Amino acid sequence: MSQLTHEIREAAREFLRDGKVQTVIGFEQGSLPLRSRPCFIRKEEDLEKLVWNGFCETNLARYLPKRKGKIAIVAKGCDSRALVELIKENQITRDQLVIIGVACDGMIDRNLIEADMSGETIVEVKEDKGILTVKGTNSEKALDRKKYLYDHCKVCSHPVPVIYDVLIGQKDLQAVQAPVIDTFSDLDDFSSLGSEKRWEYISQEMGKCIRCYACRNACPMCYCPECFADASKPQWVGKSTELSDTMVFHLMRAFHLAGRCVGCGACEQVCPMGVDIRKLNRKLQKDVTDLFHYDAGCSLEETAPLATFRVDDPESFMVEP
Amino acid sequence: MNKSGQWEPKIVGFLCNWCSYAGADLAGTSRIQYPPNIRVIRVPCSGRIDPLFIFSCLQNGMDGVLVSGCHPGECHYLSGNYNARRKFALLKSLIEYVGLEEGRVQFSWVSASEGVRFAKVVEEVTARIKALGPAKKLVKNISGGSFDVSAHP
Prior knowledge:
The complex is a heterodimer of chains A (321) and B (153). In chain A, helix 7 (195-207) crosses helix 9. A 5-stranded mixed beta sheet of chain A has the order 2-1-3-4-8. A 3-stranded antiparallel beta sheet of chain A has the order 5-6-7, with no helix packed on it. Chain A has 11 helices and 8 strands. Helix content of chain A is 31%, strand content 14%. Chain A folds into 3 domains: 1-105 and 156-177, no CATH class; 110-148, no CATH class; 182-307, no CATH class. Chain B is α/β, with parallel strands linked by helices and 153 residues long. Chain B has a single domain (11-146), classed as Rossmann fold, CATH 3.40.50. Chain B has a 4-stranded parallel beta sheet, with helices on both faces. The N and C termini of chain B lie close together (7 Å). The chains are: A alpha/beta (321), B alpha/beta (153). Chains A and B meet through helix 7, helix 9 and helix 11 of A and helix 2, helix 3, strand 4 and helix 4 of B.
């Protein structure tokens, strides 16, 4: 059991025993290696299930909108930023929450590991001081953890939760010493392509979409009781997997997340078709930062960028005859 | 198509009830000539424009979209157009980023007294969209691509 797991359990135990919360939302070991799954704990004896490792990538804030009662939630940097946005959007109140913040070293993309094990079934994974020891059926490999992070973890500028009631694991964290400043340089290559090339790439990506809505369902900020994609009176977006419909679905979803997306990557993690969804979200994130100087999920006080305005907002794009 | 068989763009104009629609009305009553390519849809405020309206137009075979509202500071609802302006800035940037042609979707401010300006805006928007040619990228192909929008003017 890692130190972090132990600390999370002890923190949760305290809140649950005192009756400060009724539910603890955290992670338990999944039934396969490389998997941790969300769990809801209501009894003290179940706390032994809680774990913390490099596969706790799910954004737990997803489970909060409109939830009743007092809840303790294990939150990484991105989860906490989603919490901030949810609190601001009145989906949950701060008083309801006890946030067990965990400073996060980045989550590991199991697909990258599986690709490296050349088809071998992985039976066990151990993490220790930045080294992953992956045991397959026939071989064992020691891998550098840093190389197997999710793309969004590589550009994460908030590894430490922005709000929390207890904070765990900060002193062991390398990222705290050298925080990443997100300059959106991952978009440079794409933006410098010609318009036709960009359309080609985006069409190819969105063309893969099967409209399973996993991205929407995993997104902590997609909590509308009725999504525009499900609305039928009037039906604005067709439900087909034809490029035009998938494209409009993704463009609109990205747009609805403008100034709200915290870049947790939940959409891409769950996509069964490997669609590059973050290409759109990142662009809007960049524009919101550049034009309106707003970074989603960083402050409880700042108004959401599309709910406010400045008299001198940029308008050079308008037609001036 | 016009009478001589040349392609003419179809443009949707979303005009706000209080300024641009009245501006268009003034252009009409003043007998100012402007291209007939625009189809006007009256909306209560430019802030009413959902990007979905715009995508829907492009999906259904429109070649361009113009959204026009009151000048900043003159909104009937005080801040509708300010809020809209932020949305438009992001939308325009996103549309161009994904590789839809620059200029398909345009935004302008026209007040109720600016009939001449309205005509000029429509002229400019039409010229730009004409130069781009028919919009094909986002057009929805009904049942496997046999439906050609240009065959159904």
